[in-house]
Fold this protein.
Amino acid sequence: MTAATAPAPAAETPDGGAVIDVRGLRMRYGTMDVITGVNFSVHRGEVIALLGPNGAGKTTTIEILEGFRIRSAGDVRVLGTEPATGDERWRARLGIVLQSWRDHARWRVRDLLDHLGRYYAPFATPGRPRPIETDKLIAMVGLTEHANRRISTLSGGQRRRLDVAIGIVGRPDVLFLDEPTAGLDPHARHDFHDLLHRLSDFDDTTILFTTHDLNEAEKMADRILILADGRIVADGSAEQLARRVSGQAEVRWSQDGEFLVHSTDDATAFVRELFAEHGDEIGDLEVRRTSLEDTYMALVHRLETGQSGGDVVPFKRTA
């Protein structure tokens, strides 16, 4: 990408169309099939978590979507373009945060971000100005106090914040993140989650990220894709996936000094009836659904043990 080029604006994805569309994706290394038939689509502004065991093909899938790796078979479109043939206009609309990046050690934070931002300026559109102003970007990722430091002097967590800044400097339409919060402390992780919400809610950025932190996936993602055995084995919200594994919720409460537990398919109706019958006698009420961790472990275990239940959970978009 060169700052001297001033191309026409890239065509926008049609309203209602999939920003990411993957059909029959396969990837083979030698005689080994890593991805055997992945299908999914992502719409504008969605935040998607891609989960799966080590070696399941998560990073490979993202690298194919980014155009860094050529697939063996299938059809893939990102922003309406085949990633392997995407031009500079298309790449200017992507943001990428790799698992690790250790280049540019001698640059200062502000200088590097300002330099990288200049490459995106020719690709600005009326609806999406590029790049994000440098000092604003530095503040967004919490590096204001370190803006004039050399990158080689940053801590691991600070460096990870810089990685995120590099990924979003061009105000991307689609943002790919591979283990983005690895190495971040709880405060930095919280700030990062807020930043993703802002990008999705205010910039309508479509976000696809991998993580091993199931709590993070449950908190951040509109939808969760679980990749295992070379394919997507579950696709839906955390609640939808939990209902697949166990349709029941567990209601806990205290009454007359006794702690009680009841499993039910309809927690709302049960709690309503409980209060209608016992009123103020009810205390310490808690409704617990199957956690994403429980769901994930159960689904992966079913696959590993050859049990049934490997069909994809359908996801229905709502207005």
Summary: Confidence is low (pLDDT under 50) at residues 1-12, 309-319. The two ends are 38 Å apart (CA to CA).
